[in-house]
Design a protein that fits this description.
This protein is mainly β. It has 2 helices and 10 strands, in the order αβαβββββββββ.
Length: 238
């Protein structure tokens, strides 16, 4: 009876392993998320900068700022077990805009509008905690990457120049100013996040997550700021 018992045990063990794998299989995945992002404290920093331009013969007026909005990211990863994965993404955060005017003896009126665009590339280690066999998983992530910030400034208004004529008299001349200037800077950062995902049909996953990056930007371009995002994404396994 030893051999028949062995023949019976082997199929049962294989059947048990197939049940264990029914809820998860090692897979690669790629997806797209739509984000709501906030970049803090860019608007406060812009207001403080504009207020610092007020002097005895110069006045400045802050006209408005937005430092939150929508964004998107593409991501891909490999989840080799129910509990661990690695992931990389590329994203663009919300575009920050600010507007103000400056007036002084040389610039009777100058309107300035600035736009700051932030792009980021990240790599994460992701830890999952599956909730039974429901397909739901709670996860946390930590990692880092690079950021690229680009500032685009549009300046429009009037400038005053004073010319000395041949007879020695002075002639003021007002001429229009209209130009666009841009600058960029980059660096490295770290970040972390958490979320919940739901996998179904061993093919698709819905995920909602929150992420935070505390050290983006530099003093070379509007100062350092934080990027915080909440997103909803959809991925496919392959």
């Amino acid at each position: 009876m030893i051999r028949p018992l062995l023949l019976l045990v082997v199929p049962l063990s294989l059947l048990g392993s197939s049940f264990a794998c029914a809820d998860f299989y090692s897979h690669r995945y790629g997806g797209l998320s739509f984000q709501g992002t906030a970049l803090d404290p860019l608007c406060n920093s812009s207001r403080e900068f504009v207020e610092s331009l007020n002097r005895e013969q110069q006045s400045s007026q802050f006209e408005g700022c937005t430092d939150s909005g929508s964004g998107a990211k593409l991501y891909a990863g490999w989840r080799w077990s129910p509990n661990f994965a690695v992931e990389a993404d590329f994203r663009q955060a919300a575009t920050t805009t600010s507007q103000f005017t400056v007036s002084n003896p040389q610039l009777p009126y100058l309107h300035i509008k600035e736009k700051l665009t932030t792009r980021m590339g990240n790599a994460f280690v992701v830890g999952h905690l599956p909730v039974g066999r429901s397909g739901v998983s709670v996860f946390g992530k930590v990692g880092g990457g690079f950021w690229l910030s680009q500032l685009r400034s549009r300046q429009r208004g009037d400038a005053l120049a004073i010319f000395q004529l041949e007879d020695g008299s002075l002639q003021p001349v007002v001429f229009p100013v209209d130009g666009t200037f841009s600058d960029s800077t980059s660096g490295f950062h770290w970040g972390y996040g958490a979320g919940v995902s739901y996998s179904f049909r061993n093919r698709w996953t819905l995920r909602a997550e929150w992420e935070f990056f505390p050290e983006i930007g530099s003093d070379e371009l509007l100062g350092e700021y934080e990027v915080e995002s909440a997103s909803l994404g959809w991925s496919v396994h392959f």
